[in-house]
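Can you make up a polypeptide sequence alongside its tokenized fold?
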Amino acid sequence: MNRIAVFGSTGSIGTSCLDVIRQHGSSMQLVAAAACSSWRQLAEQTRDFQPVRAVLADSSIADAIDRSQFCENTDIRFGSDEVEAIAEMSEVDTVVSAIVGAAGLRGTWAAIENGKRVAIANKETLVVAGPLIMELARERGVELLPVDSEHSAVFQSMQSGPRTAVKRIVLTASGGPFREATAKEMQDVTPDKALAHPTWDMGPRITIDSATMMNKALEIIEARWLFGVEARQIEVVVHPQSILHSFVEYVDGSVIAQMSPPDMRLPIQYALTYPDRAEATCPTMDWTQAVTLELEPPDRERFPALDLGYEVADRGGTAGAVLNAADEVAVERFLAGDLAFQDITRACREVLNNHNFDPNPSLDDLMRLDGWARQETRSWKH
């Protein structure tokens, strides 16, 4: 029995993860769940799965919830410290890190520190603190298993040969809703238009990041640390069908790819069953139908976020923490109507350029710069 804790259980990744656990009830058990403030949804999850513990990171709502809606056998706790405390529970074997943004870093760090296997859907953990996270995982002998569809595809493709034989990693991108938009058309993008993703159903921040291609920039940085390759060994291609999830090219010219319909339950399931594979819980390819797979290079002039991704992956240090924090706030401002769509990347560029770069920061240094970058982005003006 794989005893699982899900950090971010009420988000899109978290709910997909619970679908997988429900389908594999004979081999998986939800032991703990953590959410930010969606207490009604968390309460319903406790009734469905009866976990030992449930945590709401937003302690300010402790007096506002209706405890009678939670499973009576579930211990309900509050505060971000309690999210980290889940990682100390002896009942937990695997932690699914699915809290969106830099807020997920502390919980992931605690899980690794306590020797848990980690299924990592929170890309910001590696963007912000990749070298520190990978070093800690090596020290504790912890497996980090990617849940992002692209990184899961790379991970699966890398089973075909030694890492020393990998020539390059190629991450696929859907291109988002503005793949064919002109630069002029992108000047008038509204939040509603940017949230209309053509193939994936995701949370608002990730959806906007897909529209700017900042999500691919962050995935370049994540891949740099997760797979131990150089930034120059990572490429991006636009693939609007979102069927070929990413691929690996080896030194002999062989290209190994992973493909499937776009459904997050597959990479989640693979992370939770690795190294084994289980029966599919989501739609599979229909080979009786014709399939066309398009691949094209991204337009880096219309999507300058990609250049930021390569630069930050190459520099390391504090650059990832600053870029991620700036993007989180810039996206919030765009959704609130306080920032133009193209200003998201402009704000990130200026804040990144203006920070005091440190090539070897501590975790406290990264958290301090995270706060600084957020404040700078809140006051940024074009």
Remarks:
- The chain has a mean pLDDT of 94.
- The first strand starts at residue 2 and ends at 7.
- Residues 151-262+288-316 form one domain.
- The CA atoms of residues 199 and 242 lie 7 Å apart.
